[in-house]
Amino acid sequence: xxxxxxxxxxxxxxxxxxxxxxxxxxxxxxxxxxxxxxxxxxxxxxxxxxxxxxx
Length: 55
Description:
The chain is mainly alpha-helical. It has helices at residues 11-15, 22-31, 40-51; strands at 9-10, 37-38.
């Protein structure tokens, strides 16, 4: 079965999103690339990697 394509957003949209805490937004501002698009799941994975937890 094909996976549903997730919407991708620029870094700025994710950093400004209400879906992340202030600390998570700070992490995203540091770890995401300016010229790349990310899904919300991608952003959450980057936050988890930054915090050092891979589950």
